[in-house]
Amino acid sequence: MPPDSRTRLPGVAAQPPAETTGFVFNHTMLRVKDIAASLDFYTRVLGFRLVETRDFPDAAFSLYFLAHVSAATQIPEDPAERQRWLAGIPGVLELTHNHGTERQQGPVYHDGNSEPRGFGHICVSVPDLEAACARFEELGVTFQKRLHDGRMKNLAFIKDPDGYWVEIISHR
Amino acid sequence: MPPDSRTRLPGVAAQPPAETTGFVFNHTMLRVKDIAASLDFYTRVLGFRLVETRDFPDAAFSLYFLAHVSAATQIPEDPAERQRWLAGIPGVLELTHNHGTERQQGPVYHDGNSEPRGFGHICVSVPDLEAACARFEELGVTFQKRLHDGRMKNLAFIKDPDGYWVEIISHR
């Protein structure tokens, strides 16, 4: 679709307003039941790094900020500097852990894909889709849709420990 | 928090596994009732650009991919090349429009912040938080939490046309 036809769709601004220069889609927040299970999934299975944690003991919750940060990237150690740096990059995942949910029986949170629907999924893109999906199988990850299931052969959906859908696509 | 203590938290991988090199947290998908209203909000109010649309008329839905792309960035016009480029960048917002929802009465989707909870919000960071919030007021945007309401004075929450919460923070 050429750019002209994209900007002619109803509602679309022809150009981003000057006042929005420097705006960054920084993060997406999901509530999770068992933070250890989620940190394991997002760091070990999906390669995120835990960049920052914030604890609110009075309100009984903690926040965990994760991102795909290369080993070469220096994460600032000064708290204020790290917070600014973290706020300025796209692709951050914020996990909210309400203390004690991990001791509840069964699922605690709603994945958004049954009624009432809303949020659908997050997506991680990978250099080698076949290799990534084969590794997820080896690791015992739950699939919502395997790569070769259904009509769309170029994407898979796996599930995180809370059942949130994570789409897997290729960027090569 | 120094990096050592972050990687000592239960569940956290000490290093991202080599097999996850090149993984990118690419996008977050939200279902929207009225795509024209959402495109207006995300492009005009929040400065996203519409990068790609995909129509599935047989299944009666369309997908819209938006990102904060600077005017200097050349979005590839070749469809396959654009799709690869789009899959490789972080900070993409995917909006799903199920055709006809815009004619339903009242809200169609669930924002995740009342029962059943799950997804919480997306967040856009800005260079000048006071200026951004003043502009949102001028534009008649609905606030969930104004900058100076409550205890947290360094963040605001606005609502998109479906009622999804969008946190606004500063990256300066």
From TrEMBL, chains A, B:
The keyword Zinc applies. Signal peptide: none annotated. It holds the Pfam family Glyoxalase. Its cofactor is Ni(2+); Zn(2+). Pathway: Secondary metabolite metabolism; methylglyoxal degradation; (R)-lactate from methylglyoxal: step 1/2. PROSITE patterns: GLYOXALASE_I_1, GLYOXALASE_I_2, VOC. InterPro entries: Glyas_Bleomycin-R_OHBP_Dase, Glyas_Fos-R_dOase_dom, Glyoxalase_1, Glyoxalase_1_CS, VOC_core. It comes from the Bacteria. Keywords: Lyase, Metal-binding, Nickel, Zinc. Its EC number is 4.4.1.5. The keyword Transmembrane does not apply. Belongs to the glyoxalase I family. Catalyzes the conversion of hemimercaptal, formed from methylglyoxal and glutathione, to S-lactoylglutathione. This is Lactoylglutathione lyase.
